Amino acid sequence: xxxxxxxxxxxxxxxxxxxxxxxxxxxxxxxxxxxxxxxxxxxxxxxxxxxxxxxxxxxxxxxxxxxxxxxxxxxxxxxxxxxxxxxxxxxxxxxxxxxxxxxxxxxxxxxxxxxxxxxxxxxxxxxxxxxxxxxxxxxxxxxxxxxxxxxxxxxxxxxxxxxxxxxxxxxxxxxxxxxxxxxxxxxxxxxxxxxxxxxxxxxxxxxxxxxxxxxxxxxxxxxxxxxxxxxxxxxxxxxxxxxxxxxxxxxxxxxxxxxxxxxxxxxxxxxxxxxxxxxxxxxxxxxxxxxxxxxxxxxxxxxxxxxxxxxxxxxxxxxxxxxxxxxxxxxxxxxxxxxxxxxxxxxxxxxxxxxxxxxxxxxxxxxxxxxxxxxxxxxxxxxxxxxxxxxxxxxxxxxxxxxxxxxxxxxxxxxxxxxxxxxxxxxxxxxxxxxxxxxxxxxxxxxx
Length: 448
Hints:
This protein is mostly beta strands. It is built from one helix and 41 strands. Among the domains are: 1-130, Methylamine Dehydrogenase, Chain H (7 Propeller), CATH 2.130.10.10; 273-282 and 293-322 and 329-447, Methylamine Dehydrogenase, Chain H (7 Propeller), CATH 2.130.10.10. Helix content is 2%, strand content 48%. The strands form ten sheets. Strands 29-28-34-33-32-31 form a six-stranded mixed β-sheet, with no helix packed on it. Strands 1, 2, 39, 40 and 41 form a five-stranded antiparallel β-sheet that branches. A four-stranded antiparallel β-sheet has the order 3-4-5-6, with no helix packed on it. β9 (72-77) and β10 (84-88) form a beta hairpin. InterPro entries: Centrosome-WD_assoc, Quino_amine_DH_bsu, WD40/YVTN_repeat-like_dom_sf, WD40_rpt.
């Protein structure tokens, strides 16, 4: 594995372009676009204020920068650096902004969720969508970009509207059987829309494209309910992570539960491999060095090394009892992700913050547990093969594949604490993000 030098970053705002050729990063009010292969700066754009959100258009020709405090969105062109566009929402304010799938319309959500404004870059026309609901995930596009679903709230009831993205005409409008709609997400094939209630009510609803209710699923009634939802890439499975520390898998034929995965504090099955991260301080005799070590050499010589060891089951994981009288308790399955080949599901139970659980979806059983020394901050699957990358807020990146797992130290001076990461679409590299810096990691073909 090779690593680039560190580059300045603010707000964790760093994105690969969809075509994989460019890397955009933000430093305060500046947008820096680099060539992915050489990391040479292609363009630097200066915005009117500190950038709070950045997003590429689907064709990688434009890039959107949102400044929510000012209610302004600026759009830049990579093909024509002199061209730019400014959208000012004025007194209506701005709380969210995103591209439409065609990369030629911008959807701005105003303060207090009064409306969504659809701005066309081609015709300069404006359309309005009323009553968008203020929820976790209120706008969802189908993967083919043909349809958009919007969660709405009017007259104290929840609704969903489905629009045709080519002309923004309303296709369907229907009410949902939810108390407080929290999120919506299309299946990757675009045939089914999942809608789920807030954590106070355990309910998942599955709708067809024409608004028919296909199925409703409820695991239990009174305790806190759903915390996370994820579709498998094949659209065959819907995984639901709950506050009761379980993941339930629904199938796409009957929409009934086929299994549930528990996350106990003790892993007892002999069929499960538990990889435990251990640190070892290197013993270096400085007297034997014939020269004073440089800062970089000293940091590599004296820094603690990390590796995985296989633990003998049963293994007791570090379990944190949640504080009952606080909002948003650290309890339940808060992170879910299917591998690109549909074979594996990675989960994190917030009660056991240092562990990642990897499930074999073909056999519906627990395959591996990765027990880290620090809290898992982020994990993401390689888009091309079953390989999981994760970070824990230190200067190491961790990789797992069916062949095994490894911990890799990011070289360099200073304390580069990785809190987020993102794969390149080719799977050959990924960007590692800390609070103030970014680094690109290049993987060799034989790396697990």
